[in-house]
Each structure stands twice: as C-alpha cells, then as structure tokens.
Specification:
Order of helices and strands: HHHHH
Structural class: mainly alpha
Distance between the termini: 45 Å
Strand content: under 5%
Largest sheet: none
Oligomer: single chain
Number of strands: 0
Radius of gyration: 25 Å
Shape: elongated
Length: 170
C-alpha cells in the first residue's frame, strides 16, 4: 500500500467496520455480534500478552549481540500487529488479523519487507540489506572517509546573510 493511500484507508475503515456491524448484526443478532467483538478483543489481548514482551526481549538480545534481525523477528512482529488488529472493534480488522496469522501470508509479507529492510549500526559499522539502493555504501568497503578535527574546519557566520544577527521573534 502506498503511503498516499493511507489517509483514505484510515477514513474508510471505520465506515466499513460500521457496515460490517450492521450486516453481521442482522444475520446473527445483536448479542452474538457483541459477543464476537468481545471475543476478538480478548484474543487480541492474549496475543499481545504472549508475543509483545517476547519480541521486545528477542530484539534486545539480538541488538546486543550484533545480529542483524531477520525473518525470525517478523513472525512475532506480525503476531503483535494481528493482536492490535484483533483489539480494534470490527470484523474487517479481525479478518485482516486472521490473515496475518496464516503462515503463507507472513511469507508474502517477508518477501515484501525483506527488499526494503535496512539495518543501520551493526557490529562492523553501518550495514545494509541487499537492496539495490544500498549496495557499496559501507564506508569500510573502499569509500573515502575524511576525518576532521575542530581545528581543521571552521564555519564563520556570513555577515551578508539576511539571517545573521537575528533572533527568533525579531
């Protein structure tokens, strides 16, 4: 999904959820509909309780050991997203959460995310994934690095600038 479509999606999702409530309420009744909504929230809370702390601990451990996070972190992260979607009252968000719990959908998400996945600040300095935009940008891979001290470079204020000598509010 493109980011330009996100505001429209966020505007239309509540309307679609309300339409879903009306349709499901007519078919199975009001009490059963409310029961399904409460069940979805309980399932979401259980998933977040189980996966939320686990993923934070795993990310912290991998970050301290210098391991580049990968596919093994996507699964718990996707479950956290599914738990959040289950907690949103509505059936469309619950359907999306159920889809995220399917391994084939998680594999498709990994294929999509892995191309755009960039890790900065690895053990050997800056590292990047094998994406086409980030090849050969590691400074230790033959790039030219210029290390300057304070004495080597000084920037003097430009007296001809219309902004020199001004302060906020002047």
């Amino acid at each position: 999904m493109r980011l330009t479509m996100l505001p429209g999606f966020m505007l239309l999702l509540p309307l679609a959820e309300i339409a879903g409530f009306v349709i499901v309420g007519r078919v199975i009744g009001v009490l059963a509909t409310l029961g399904l909504v409460v069940l979805g929230v309980v399932i979401g809370m259980a998933i977040l309780r189980r996966q939320g702390l686990g993923i934070l601990q795993k990310m912290s451990a991998e970050g301290q050991s210098g391991v580049v996070p990968g596919r093994e972190l996507l699964k718990p992260a996707m479950f956290v997203i599914a738990g959040l979607l289950f907690m949103i009252p509505g059936f469309i968000s619950d359907i999306l959460a159920i889809l995220i719990c399917i391994p084939a959908v998680r594999d498709l998400a990994w294929k999509y995310v892995s191309r755009r996945f960039v890790v900065v600040g690895g053990r050997n300095g800056f590292t990047a994934s094998a994406g086409p935009d980030f090849r050969n940008r590691n400074p230790s891979a033959g790039g030219k690095v210029v290390d300057l001290d304070e004495d080597d470079f000084k920037r003097e204020p430009n007296q001809n600038s219309p902004w020199s000598g001004k302060r906020l509010g002047d």
